[in-house]
Write a structure and sequence with these properties.
Shape: globular
Strand order of the largest sheet: 6-14-15-16-13-17
Largest sheet: 6 strands, antiparallel
Helix content: 25-40%
Number of helices: 16
Structural class: alpha+beta
Mean pLDDT: 95
Distance between the termini: 13 Å
Low-confidence stretches: none
Number of strands: 18
Strand content: 15-25%
Length: 425
Amino acid sequence: MQDRSREQRIGIVGAGAAGLSLACYLADAGYRRITILERDSQPGGKCRSWRSGGRAWELGAILATTDYEATLDMMARAGVRPWRAPAKRRAVDDSFVDQGIYPSERLFPGWIGLGELGPALWQILKYHALARKWPAVFSPRNDDLPPELSLSFAEWAERYRMGTLAKLYALPFTSFGYGYYDEVPAAYVLKYFEPGITRSLVLQGKFFSWEEGVQSVWERIARSFDVRYGTRPVRVRRRNVIALRCEDGSELEFDRLILTSPLDESLSYLDADAEETELFGRIRHTDYRVFLCHVRDMRIESGFAPCRFGCEGTGRPMIWDRRHADSDLHTFYVLGSGQESDAEIEEAIAADVRLLGGTFTGTETSVRWKYFPHVGSEDLAGGYYRRLEALQGRQSTYYAGELLAFSTIERSVRYSRDLVERFFA
């Protein structure tokens, strides 16, 4: 029976970090009949890299840390090593600090002042102690989260007097597209900033990136599997077998199906039951934009604007970076409201470039991410994830990816590994 189960036909929808890591762990468990359907023409999902002249710029995932053991496992399988960009030597211009705009070099001291160092270190220690109360937060799943963490993160930080820690977290949380503290449940913020990652904020040497771009990891992994690019499901019927029709008219059959693509979008093709329809309909997202633009002579080449870490900054650049010193390409990151056009975002970027004394000469490429799938505080407190996990395996269908885990590579890969261990080992 065990050997025959390994001959099951498994379909995975989505060739991002979740889907491709699932394929790896399924192959480790002995499964060979794995088909991955990807609607785009390339793998990686939100691990998107723009490449030109042998160099890469990131349009999705940006950084990892040495605590990301699952990510490092995938990188080792792909033959990709951690990379750290050469140190950038440049003049630091502090003249815009009064307007809420800081050079990257002024995170500390600067945005975090010298007088806040003591409180920051104390609150990090306090957070490590608190974390022992909530081991479920740092597990791969979300189905046993403490009810008190359904509070907004702003409320949680006030309750536990973590104002300086919250300020430290704001740069990688809000500017990386996860939303605003007064809207996002604390559980998600803590899921991101597990103790090891919190230490990384102090020990900067723990961070790394990817010389050929993060997408190179998933491109190499995808070569080992049957990935059908440009393939979009339009109908799934789950009976004795799972019958899946694609947009191009092709028909596929599977014994088990795993959805890693956006679950709210699956309602357009899945024969969803009432529970699936209700749960998938409650999913929220942020509107995250990444623009790669040609800019000359900007006085702050890499910087951030904490004055925009609240909803008043919607539609304006929160953080930007010049990855390669000999290129005029700069990457800008913007949280939108869902209403702004690309042209409006581009004009906001151009206005900031002019403010900083530079010349904006155009956009090379941009991407609009339907980012950070999550639910609100009321749903979280009401047991949303327990209900979602109860769906696993019903009608031979499983779910993985950002919503089930969290919107980082590491969390998505850990969840994929956990899913295979629970249901396919």
